[in-house]
Amino acid sequence: MRCRRLWRLNQVNKRPFNTNRHSVLLISPPESYRIQPYVRAALSLDLEINIASEGEWAISSPHSAGIDVPLQDHQSALPILLELFKQRQYDAVIGTDDSTLELAAKLAEKTGLQQNPPTAVRLARRKDLSRLCLHQAGIRVPAFLVVEASEQQLFDEPYFGFPCVIKPLALSASRGVIRANTCESLNRGVKRSLRIISEQTDLYEKNHLLLEQFIDGREFAIEGILSDRQLDILAIFDKPDPMEGPYFEETYYISPARISPNERQILIETVQNACRAFGLVTGPVHAECRLNKEGAWLIEMAARTIGGLCSRLLTFGTGYSLEQLVLANAIGLELPQELKDGAAGVLMLPTETAGILRRVEGVMRAEKVPYIDDIEISLREGYRVSPLPEGTSYLGFVFSTAPDSDKVEQALRDAYALLNPVIAPYWPVSMSKKEASD
User: Fold this and answer.
1) Domain covering 347-438 in this structure, CATH number
2) Could you give the angle at which helices 98-111 and 74-88 cross, rounded to 10 degrees?
């Protein structure tokens, strides 16, 4: 152990740890994998937690009451949540995913709770708005343009040239993100991305795409928490595999990042400046930057926690889960921490073939690789899977801790070599009108 220190999460209205029972409202889409970690974190901190979601039955558990709200209809959802707030007097409200952050911010604004302004959350969620905001603030971002697209429309080479990257305005996890090197691949990619965003409910987001300059360089993920506009860095992760496309599936995250102190400072300053440009003041921040000889380029930033089960890595570095840190920050609790030596990493198991998952072979052998801590296969047999850019789920996660980052990376690569996902072809069965009516 290097030292014990007090994590200074919030500079105002601090309460001693665990002396009063606080209550938190979690606003989350029903399918979010973040719900369980937040509920578990709330229990560990002795917090009362309610979940506002939507569906025929509200999400609840023995430890958390559920409230059914129309998440996409803010005009209808806000009165329901305001009435709930009058009854419960929550100490904090947290949106778990991109789709609920703005609603949580609007509720906090009306109730006087500490949160980010709704406009700041919207800037961070919408890639076109964030690019414009950051460019105007003088922060290094790729050259870009927003295009209205249709299946029939053809595009010429963008003004910033090839290669370029096609991006949906409001999807995460690299869905619909495609690199194009020629006009032919650009138009093919636009059509493919359009089919992916056809599910969007917002008409503008459904018909527009972002085209941006491809930025070469090493890519890093930065996790932090804002307290009164000041960014505390929790971790900077290496992404050792080159992210060159044509699709941008993330695989390895390793911390601490193998960078110089000067490079680390450049990354931190870039993310802090982006937070100020957006107007973000509190809560979690997940950012992705590329470093090259020109400096740091902000590729993505969101006012939420990291995706997947990757938040587990923060436990190694801080002694607490990321969700515990976010909840503590929201209500002003101080958490004593023990900083550990060594390194940690995760491999997000990519989906390389479309079809029906039958099983993942070799898990027991991979678990025996030195420095492998855990392997969690997230998807069950019979689940239909697709690779990026259409895919929405990883097969699972492999976790490692070791004395240094090089050993973590090698352990994850050795474990991956032993895993064999078995995916059967998907043959959709269609019925005739007569068969369907019988």
Assistant:
1) 3.30.470.20
2) 50
In the chain, residues under CATH classification 3.30.1490.20 are: 143-213
Tell me where in the chain the CATH 3.40.50.20 domain(s) lie.
11-117
Strands lying side by side in the sheet with 283-292:
295-302, 283-292, 218-227, 230-239, 252-255, 343-349, 396-402, 372-377
The CATH fold assigned to 143-213 is: Dna Ligase; domain 1 (3.30.1490)
Please write the tens of the pLDDT for every residue from 248-270.
999 999 999 999 999 999 999 99
pLDDT for 10 beyond 80: no
Query: What CATH number should be reported for the domain whose range is 11-117?
Result: 3.40.50.20
The pTM for the full model equals 0.89
Average pLDDT over residues 265-282: 97
Q: How does pLDDT run across 143-167, given as a tens digit for each residue?
A: 999 999 988 889 999 999 999 999 9
Q: Which residues of 207-219 are buried (b: 16+ CB within 10 A; e: fewer)?
A: bbbbbbbbbebbb
